[in-house]
Write a structure and sequence with these properties.
By secondary structure, this protein is an alpha/beta fold. It has twelve helices and 23 strands. The protein folds into three domains: about 1-35; about 70-280, P-loop containing nucleotide triphosphate hydrolases (Rossmann fold, 3-Layer(aba) Sandwich); about 285-460, Ribosomal Protein S5, domain 2 (2-Layer Sandwich), CATH 3.30.230.10. The strands form five sheets. Strands 8-7-9-10-6-11-12-13-14 form a nine-stranded mixed beta sheet. Strands 17-18-16-15-19-22-23 form a seven-stranded mixed beta sheet, with helices on both faces. β7 (about 120-125), α3 and β8 (about 150) form a beta-alpha-beta unit. One of its GO terms (molecular function) is damaged DNA binding.
């Protein structure tokens, strides 16, 4: 019998090397390569050539009506929004987030809601004892929910327990980094163990129809720890984000085979657990200072949900040879592009100024429609003139200085009108949508036109054309 050779596996990306080295050639991480024993073959899989001829797979055509995947509503509207309407039967999800952000609290509340609705739910904790999970449930007022609880880390024992009795509708495993299987001869949390444990749980979910949720740790750069192949294996990857100094939390779908990937769910952390936020715009604009220069309200869109958030900018003369550019909640490369367009196309000199930009409330904005609001906040801060308190901004800025149209202006403007905003600086193509929403449109075809209006406002002329 040929003895299996040990493999050297990178713990950051999962790349396999023939020998140890200080730096991974695949991802560039230092001191991340660990020697691991070769994985044992999976049960029922032959590793010898010529053994086992396999089975014939039935081939089907593309015609015919597709069957809609049955879904299991979680009882939490914000969670169902992100997953696409509920958990799909037989699917497996990976939930990641910073330590202490509220992942276990979110899943405990969802499992209690499903259990109270009559579904069998199993919660397996690999990091806490059963008494600790029970104590959290009592603190959240969920102690009477009929959730089956266990504290175990062996995958074989977990699967044997799940096969006893009726198949559960939802299985939660907290977390995947603590699980281990006898099919891999390495320590828990290593790439080999995480990959083998995830594969065994995926087979269970697909064969039984149970929905399985895996909890994953997050590294310093915000990525889910472990091999990237696990994210490709699961059906959905959810990210739970938030700032430790703020009460609200954002749930995003980075991958979803059964729903959209641009929806967000907003929660507020309270003493009684997570509460759903039905009006996020009011939350993000709650502490707004209307007369402060450098503050612009952005009409953003996250999936199908319009959000109004405040973009804050501070532009001050720099005493450094290289001015500072600090960004929170937005893309720093996008800020550099907007600054270059302001200087090249509009004559706004910011090369000797420090620029600080932040999205108020801790929300991270990713869409290019924020360009116009960022430019307005920067010019307002530079000139020391506050923007109109009843105006919102959205539009993409091109390298030529033109303001380009953005998708779905109607929902943005209707949300602005609902919260009492009367005017909107927007691309010319969105003027008709503004009229339908009852908002006065300030059409901005080029960025220099907006800068000229803001300069006139700083001189006391105001924005009478809005």
């Amino acid at each position: 019998m040929v003895r299996a050779k040990p493999a050297f596996v990178c713990q950051s990306c999962g790349a396999v090397h023939n020998r140890w080295s200080g730096k991974c050639d695949a991802c560039g991480a230092w001191n991340s390569i660990v020697q691991e024993a070769a994985s044992a073959p999976l049960p029922g899989v032959s590793t010898s050539r010529g053994l086992g001829r396999g089975r014939v797979v039935v081939l089907e055509g593309l015609s015919g009506a597709p069957d809609e995947a049955p879904r299991l509503a979680s009882g939490m509207a914000e969670l169902d929004r992100v997953t696409g309407g509920g958990f799909v039967v037989g699917s497996i999800l990976l939930l990641g987030g910073d330590p202490g952000i509220g992942k276990s609290t979110l899943l405990l509340q969802a499992s209690a809601a499903l259990a109270n609705a009559g579904h069998r739910v199993v919660y397996v904790s690999g990091e806490e004892a059963a008494a600790q999970v029970r104590l959290r449930a009592q603190r959240l007022g969920l102690g009477d929910a009929p959730v089956a609880l266990a504290a175990e880390t062996c995958v074989e024992d977990i699967l044997a327990t799940l096969r006893e009795g009726p198949t559960p509708r939802l299985v939660i495993l907290d977390s995947i980094q603590t699980l281990w299987t006898g099919q891999a001869e390495s320590a828990p949390g290593t790439v080999t163990q995480v990959r083998a444990s995830a594969q065994a749980l995926i087979r269970y979910a697909k064969t039984t129809g149970a929905c399985v949720i895996l909890v994953g740790h997050v590294t310093k750069d915000g990525q889910i720890a472990g091999p990237r192949v696990v994210e490709h294996m699961v059906d959905a990857v959810l990210s739970f984000e938030g700032d430790a100094g703020r009460d609200f939390r954002i749930l995003r779908a980075q991958k979803n085979r059964f729903g959209p990937t641009d929806e967000i769910g907003v929660f507020a952390m309270t003493g009684g657990g997570l509460e759903e936020v039905r009006n996020p715009s009011a939350l993000f604009l709650g502490d707004r200072e209307p007369d402060a220069p450098g503050a612009a309200v952005l009409a953003a869109l996250e999936g199908s949900r319009p959000l109004l958030v405040e973009i804050q900018a501070l532009v001050v003369p720099s005493s450094l040879g290289t001015p500072r550019r600090a960004v929170v909640g937005w893309d720093s490369a996008r800020l550099a592009m907007v600054l270059a367009v302001l200087e090249a196309r509009c004559g706004v000199r910011l090369g000797q100024h420090d620029v600080h930009l932040a999205v108020a409330g801790g929300l991270r904005v990713q869409e290019p429609a924020a360009d116009l609001a960022v430019a307005a906040a920067l010019v307002s801060s530079l000139m020391g003139a506050p923007l109109p308190v009843d105006a919102v901004f959205f539009g993409e800025i091109g390298l030529t200085g033109a303001v380009r149209p953005v998708a779905h202006p109607g929902p943005r403007l209707r949300e602005a009108a609902r919260l009492g905003f009367k005017r909107a600086a927007l691309p010319p193509s969105a003027a008709e949508a503004a009229q339908e929403a009852g908002v006065a449109a300030l059409s901005v075809a080029t960025l220099d036109a907006l800068v000229a209006r803001l300069a006139a406002r700083a001189d006391g002329a105001g924005m009478k054309g809005a």
